[in-house]
Specification:
The complex is a heterotetramer of chains A (about 500), B (about 375), C (about 325) and D (about 220). With about 500 residues, chain A is mostly helical. Chain A has 19 helices and no strands. Chain A folds into three domains: about 60 residues; about 60 residues, no CATH class; about 300 residues, no CATH class. Helices cover about 60% and strands about 0% of the residues of chain A. The C terminus of chain A is likely disordered. Chain D is an alpha/beta fold. Chain D is built from five helices and seven strands; from the N terminus they run H-E-E-H-E-E-E-E-H-E-H-H. The chains are: A mainly alpha (about 500), B mainly alpha (about 375), C alpha+beta (about 325), D alpha/beta (about 220).
Chain lengths: ~500, ~375, ~325, ~220
């Protein structure tokens, strides 16, 4: 198939061309390759980071909108424009006129148009009139609230930076940057498309997981250095929880790497294309473990014990304020977003269109279908995973520390080893690398007809679906007993109901 | 923890000594919003006290005003017209539902789920609206008067109440689906915060918290007042899960069933109300308010045990204050949560830090009435 | 005692039930899909409006509420029609009284205090009833509408006298009052009268000194109304008020009431919350009815009195 | 129909309690009477007026012989203009609840009509007049009813009645650093009234605060 939007190649050629032309003017034309490399990477990093950071707005907006629906309320529909209402309720008025050189004029025209078309300005109601500049704010087709986070960010920027008197100042200042920088580094390893990534080392999966493990250190630093009981407890909880969930997650990823035969993220995705089946259908258990462990890693409900607001106020970031708090908040969502990308890459075939083989073989439509750039598929898949994250948050309460750890060590770890075994078996006996070949039609599951390669994912998926159904219906109807206890005064497992 | 802490549901401090994550010792500290209501009431006449009693608890204003009114009727020797008793019952039970919804809404964020909070406030709005129709305000209704009620149920009220209750009863199933059938909620609440019935009674804990431990004890039938013996209801009791007493889940269940019972009561009272639920009497009509003397003689006392949303509340009044008995000489308020909070603080010892909000929240603390 | 079927903390309940419940709720917010998940009770329109509220609502300017279907938890809004169930009223774009008119029946809602000062007799019942002492009686310069009323059985009237006060009606104020939005206004309404001190009454035109600018001027006697600076008035500290409505109940006349408005009670300092009579008074366009009623009452009494006197005089004459 | 204790049951229980108390404490100055509420169902309750000397014995009798297991409220009143022997009064309100610990998975559903004897809920009101003086003292019942613990703390805090034998007495509602002997519900403390002028001259209260600090009015 191949991605026609070969951004990496274009940037590579462009920057080489540029550097050659430039360096030919200097006495060192031989160095043009290095300069070209520098330019290329700078541009790519800018593109990748910019792309992901900007689409984080989508994530935040999605979360608010989805939660609004799930919780049966409307999400906030104020927007960046709420900033335009000045002190004492006085509107800032047509602020765009103050922008020099008339650059604000298009904004003014747009606002005027929107007020005219979609506004509900009512002269009889001064309260409405007072905020008339955004009287169209609730109009659905404008994605109300999309820029709220930008507004929040601006607010954070203007806030005072406070350090508690007894805090360990150096570590206190370093911790947020440790967290955010290690998070940003992860993004550099994520390919958005076959030919669009900042860097693609051979062992990119290993490297990425290693970097993913740095942030907990920052969390612990932050918790310790704030010199506050809540932050300390949050930091320690975070350390314990992240350790407990890092291991099953790594083993789940190891399974993916084994079946793909590579530690390189691009090759993992290529394997899914070549084998003709997403890893989700080959390793459903691994996907589940990875998802659960990732929710715990990014500390979201139901695993948000480190920042449990009911007892630890805001956990390890209680003492932070202003933009440092904003950075931590952003880092949390960036990690979540990275987790979504990783899931999409590991289990959902990355940038490859779903059913590329089948749909792609339809004349006309198939050709057009395959022309959709991979970036779009990557984004869509990541967002779809994020929907699950938001959904979890709405549906479930928070688990207690000891229950989290127990679940991690006693359930997830054995299961992850089980799925490792499955992956090894599949690799050894089915997906032998000798059989691998790349075809435009989406791998040999489709080429080989109804052969082994098609049947294996079907069987695996079927088995797991049946297990899922069996587990889902095992409640005895009419049971009024109280079957379960989580008694904390005694060692787990020794307490029996009704004693 | 506190005075500004999400766990406190108000403004108080719980000093917690922890060993790692386990709670070793606790000590509550109250009084942050002590307003001196008892002293203020000594210089207000009997009608003027009613709005102050509303403000004892912002989540359950109606029941507190009624609690006061029953006591002052005991002091002034007044019999309340029957229709007024029915309207009072409807108002109080609506407030009980609203208060329990507020409790549920505050409790689920304690164990980490914000969804139910939003749902609860959504449904509480229906009952606040109904009570606004009665009292004219959204939270502090100033609805009952010594001797009766301020105004009769307005036209269309019965229709709306029936429609809203029908909807709410369906919504209860949704809550149960999201909480009772959610494993994580069960493991957070079951087996946590055991409290035995006899210990609770000895320590002064009453109301839903005792009924959760498997004892059907309710002031509404034990010391009957109003017309509770004429409407259809049973007091809600939960079977405790262990000999150790009731856990958080039991207390959650007992409040859920209590809300259902209150709905039943309201519907039944609307059917049985003398004069019919469609008629509206003028304010001051003798059918809804009795003649009340404005002065209480010296030496007269009045008290009344009342089933508040959180337990047994009581007012104790002495007549013969300033203005030749126009003001009460002494007003004393029994707040159920004032006694409960020290008990809960001891209950928490031995559990995890994460259980503190879960246990504290399950007893439904309200600091407005605690500190008075 | 029916007990809820306790579920087991198993796999199904770990994910499926809560997920399904929240999904159902989310789907319900979309009208087309939501109908399938409504379980037969959702968005069922009920008889929520009685005839009185319906009549009242029809005049509303902001929302076309007559067409709206009401359900137990207010399910539709004009503002965002694509979403069901606006649990939050999008104030100030929507107002609660338009969504749920039955909550704001005049006389039943404890809103901003309004007083028809013209009919107030300064009996101070409201001051005594107030638990918070936020009402205070004062006097102010005003035209005595009751006593100055004309007609056979009109008031006792006052007479213009030198050194006393007079007032001239300002043109156009009443019309401006008609367009004034009493719901959200945060300011004192414009006075209908311009007051002046009477200096000379000897001619057909009186010489007066205007209170507002201090200039003296000659005004036609016929234009002058009698004013008095000892007319009862009141001050209310709305920052202390707890809206219990006891003052309204205490008023045995038609003067004191609590309006349906919840706007217009904010300020930037506590002093802003001291409402003097100008802020609480009911404008002439609306209070005229009450004033007329009181006047009619007085006229009736006066008439009876005079008739009695006449009869007594007649009887005396007959005796004599 | 909601169940309820009938007035006959109520009357029987109160009469029995009156008889029991008078039988045990007759002649010691303790008076027990059956009093009717003057509103609602006109239910009866047990009212005891006891001298402070007898109080602890009476309390134990109530708790262990009459099964009065719930201390609802402890209240003190200050009568500065009262008689010499009644300068203070402590009022106790107790309830008898038919409450027993439950086995797992079991619950008691009282049928109100069948309750008899000590199972019938009972309301008790006890007055203990104390002599005039600066330090009214009464025996603490903290060890008998745990629920009396914080009630007594509150009564001492607000009214200033001392409870002999109370462990861990402390301020609960007033600030912990309130001056010794300051009990706001005593009658010599008048409500401070911000009159009209004071309120309007200094609405924010800025000028009042410095003069007030450290003073107890």
């Amino acid at each position: 198939m191949g991605d026609w939007l070969r951004i990496n190649d274009w940037v590579h050629e462009g920057s080489l061309f540029l550097s050659e032309k430039m360096m030919n003017l200097t006495p060192w034309p031989g160095e043009s390759e290095y300069i070209g490399f520098f330019i290329e990477k700078s541009i790519l990093c800018g593109l990748i980071f910019g792309g992901i950071m900007n689409t984080i707005l989508v994530i935040l907006w999605m979360e608010r909108k989805i939660l609004g629906r799930l919780m049966d309320r409307r999400g906030a529909i104020t927007s960046l424009r709420s900033l335009w209402v000045g002190e004492s309720g006085v509107t800032a008025g047509p602020w765009w006129q103050k922008v020099p050189y008339g650059l604000g004029r298009p904004i003014g025209a747009l606002v005027g148009f929107l007020n005219k078309v979609a506004g509900n300005r009512d002269e009889k109601h001064p309260t409405v009139d007072r905020v008339n500049n955004r009287s169209w704010h609730g109009v659905w087709f404008l994605f109300p609230g999309f820029f709220q986070n930008l507004a929040d960010g601006m607010k954070f920027m203007t806030k005072e930076h406070m350090v508690p008197r007894k805090a360990d100042k150096w570590i206190y200042e370093i911790a947020p940057f440790l967290i955010i920088s290690s998070t940003v580094v992860i993004l550099g390893f994520i390919p958005l498309s076959e030919n669009f990534y900042a860097i693609n080392p051979k062992m990119s999966v290993l490297f990425m997981m290693a970097v993913f493990g740095v942030a907990p250190l920052g969390v612990f630093f932050a918790g310790w250095s704030s010199n506050n009981k809540y932050t300390l407890l949050g930091g320690i909880r975070s350390a314990a929880q992240l350790t407990a969930y890092e291991i099953p997650m790594l083993i789940a990823v190891l399974g993916v790497c084994i079946i793909s035969g590579s530690f390189n993220l691009v090759e993992v995705i290529e394997f899914q294309h070549q084998s003709g089946s997403w890893n989700l259908f080959l390793l459903p258990l691994g996907a589940m473990i990875f998802l659960i462990a990732m929710v715990a890693e990014v500390e979201r409900i139901p695993f948000d014990m480190p920042e449990a607001e009911a007892e630890l106020v805001e956990g390890w970031w209680t003492e932070y304020g202003g933009m440092r708090w904003g950075l931590m908040f952003a880092a949390e969502y960036m990690r979540t977003y990275a987790a979504c990308f990783l899931f999409a890459h590991f289990f959902l075939g990355g940038w490859h269109a779903p059913f590329a083989g089948v749909i792609g073989s339809i004349p006309w439509f198939g050709t057009a279908y395959l022309l959709i750039p991979g970036i779009i598929w990557t984004m869509l898949k990541a967002w779809a995973i994020f929907v699950i994250f938001a959904w979890l948050r709405a549906a479930l309460p928070r688990i207690r520390t000891d229950q989290i750890l127990e679940f991690g060590w006693r359930h997830l770890l054995p299961l992850s080893i089980l799925q490792l075994v499955v992956a090894v078996l599949l690799r050894l006996y089915v997906f032998d690398s000798a059989n691998m070949r790349d075809t435009a039609r989406g791998g040999f599951a489709w080429d080989g007809g109804f052969g082994l390669f098609l049947i294996v994912p079907i069987i695996v998926t079927f088995v797991f679906s049946v297990l899922f159904v069996i587990y889902s219906i095992d409640e005895e109807p009419g049971d009024v007993g109280r079957p379960f206890h989580a008694q904390t005064l005694e060692p787990a497992g020794t307490h029996k109901a009704g004693e | 923890m506190g005075p500004q802490h999400p766990m406190t549901h108000g403004l108080w401090t719980l000093r917690v000594k922890v060993d790692g994550e386990t709670v070793v010792d606790t000590e509550p500290e109250l009084g942050y919003i002590h307003r001196g209501v008892e002293k203020i009431c000594e210089s207000r006449d009997f009608t003027q006290i009613v709005p102050y009693c509303d403000r004892l608890c912002y989540a359950s204003a109606m029941t507190w005003a009624h609690s006061y009114c029953y006591a002052v009727e005991d002091l002034l020797e007044v019999d309340v017209p029957e229709r007024a008793e029915y309207v009072r019952l409807i108002a109080v039970e609506m407030q009980r539902i609203a208060s329990h919804l507020m409790w549920l809404g505050a409790y689920t964020p304690d164990v980490g789920n914000l969804t139910v909070f939003v749902w609860c406030l959504r449904d509480r709005e229906m009952f606040l609206d109904l009570m606004q129709e009665l009292g004219g305000s959204r939270m502090h209704y100033n609805f009952p008067r010594p001797g009766g009620i301020k105004r009769d149920i307005p036209p269309g009220f019965a229709n709306r109440a029936r429609a809203k209750i029908a909807l709410f009863l369906e919504r209860m199933k949704e809550y149960e689906m999201l909480l009772d059938e959610s494993t994580i909620f069960l493991v957070r609440t079951q087996g946590v915060g055991y409290a035995k019935a006899e210990e609770m009674v000895n320590a002064g804990v009453t109301g839903p918290n005792v009924r959760a431990a498997g004892v059907n004890y309710d002031v509404r039938w034990a010391h009957p007042y109003s017309v509770y013996d004429e409407v259809d209801w049973t007091s809600s009791v939960e079977k405790p899960s262990s000999v150790k007493g009731a856990d958080c889940y039991d207390r959650y269940r007992v409040r859920m069933t209590e809300m259902e019972e209150s709905c039943r009561m309201i519907i039944d009272a609307l059917d049985k109300i003398p004069g019919g639920s469609d008629t509206t009497y003028q304010s001051g009509d003798e059918k809804i308010i009795a003649k009340v003397p404005s002065r209480a003689p010296e030496g007269a006392t009045g008290h009344h045990h009342f089933e508040d949303s959180r337990g047994e509340s009581m007012f104790y009044l002495q007549g013969g204050g300033e203005g030749r008995g126009k003001y009460p000489y002494r007003v004393s308020i029994r707040s159920p949560m004032f006694i409960t909070i020290p008990f809960v603080a001891e209950t928490m010892i031995g559990y995890k830090i994460a259980d503190i909000p879960a246990i504290m929240g399950s007893f439904d603390p309200c600091i407005g009435e605690t500190d008075r | 005692m029916p007990m809820h079927k306790h579920a087991k903390p198993n796999f199904r309940n770990l994910f499926i039930k809560p997920f399904w419940m929240t999904l159902k709720t989310a789907l319900r917010t979309f009208p087309i899909i939501g109908k399938r998940f409504s379980d037969g009770y959702h968005n069922k329109s009920e008889k929520m409006l009685d005839a009185g509220s319906l009549a009242r609502v029809r005049g509303s300017k902001m929302n076309n509420v007559g067409k709206q279907e009401y359900s137990a938890d207010r399910e539709s809004s004009d503002l965002v029609p694509t979403i069901w169930r606006p649990v939050t009223i999008m104030y100030p774009y929507e107002r609660l009284e338009d969504m749920e008119p039955w909550l704001f029946v005049p006389g039943n809602y404890n809103g901003r205090i309004g007083v028809i000062w013209e009919t107030c007799t300064a009996c101070k019942l409201c001051v005594k009833a107030c638990p918070n002492d936020c009402l205070h009686m004062t006097t102010e310069l005003r035209v005595d509408v009751l006593d100055g009323a004309e007609g056979e059985y009109g008031g006792y009237g006052g007479e213009l006298k030198v050194g006393g006060w007079a007032a001239v009606e300002v043109e156009g104020v009443k019309e401006r009052h008609l367009t004034r939005n009493t719901v959200t206004a945060h300011d004192t309404p414009e006075s209908e009268y311009r007051f002046a001190e009477v200096i000379d009454l000897s001619g057909p035109s009186a010489r007066v000194r205007w209170n507002d600018n201090g200039y003296e001027e000659m005004v036609d006697n016929g234009d002058l109304l009698v004013a008095d600076d000892q007319i009862v008035s009141g001050r209310i500290d709305i920052g202390r008020c707890m809206f219990c409505g006891l003052c309204m109940e205490a008023c045995s006349f038609t003067s004191f009431f609590m309006s349906n408005e919840y706007d217009g009670m904010s300020g930037f300092s506590r002093q802003d919350l001291w409402f003097d009579a100008g802020r609480t008074r009911v404008l002439k366009n609306e209070h005229q009815e009450a004033v007329d009623a009181v006047l009619a009452e007085r006229a009736k009494k006066e008439k009876e009195k005079r008739e009695k006197a006449k009869a007594r005089a007649a009887a005396k004459e007959a005796e004599a | 129909m909601g169940m309820a204790i009938t007035s006959a049951q109520n009357k029987a229980a109160v009469d029995a309690a009156v008889a029991a108390v008078m039988d045990r404490f007759g002649g010691t100055g303790i008076e027990a009477t059956s009093v009717e509420h003057s509103t609602g169902k006109h239910a009866s309750f047990l009212r005891i007026i006891s001298p402070p000397r007898q109080w602890l014995g009476l309390a134990k009798f109530l708790r262990f012989d009459l099964g009065v297991n719930h201390c609802s409220m402890v209240t003190g009143t200050h009568f500065p203009d009262g008689a010499e022997e009644r300068g203070w009064e402590v009022a106790y309100h107790f309830m008898r609840m038919p409450v027993k610990n439950q086995a797992s998975g079991a619950c008691v559903e009282h049928d109100a009509a069948t309750l008899t004897g000590l199972e019938i809920p009972l309301e008790v009101e006890i007055f203990i007049p104390l002599a005039k003086g600066d330090s009214p003292v009464v025996d603490s019942i903290q060890s008998i009813w745990v629920g009396a613990d914080w009630n007594e703390k509150e009564t001492w805090d607000l009214v200033g009645i001392e409870f002999k034998g109370h462990k861990d007495m402390m301020r609960v509602l007033n600030p912990h650093d309130s001056p010794l002997g300051f009990h706001p519900l005593q009658k010599q403390h008048k409500l401070r009234y911000h009159d009209y002028n004071e309120m309007y001259d200094d609405a924010q209260g800025f000028e009042r605060k410095p003069t007030d600090s450290g003073l107890v009015k």
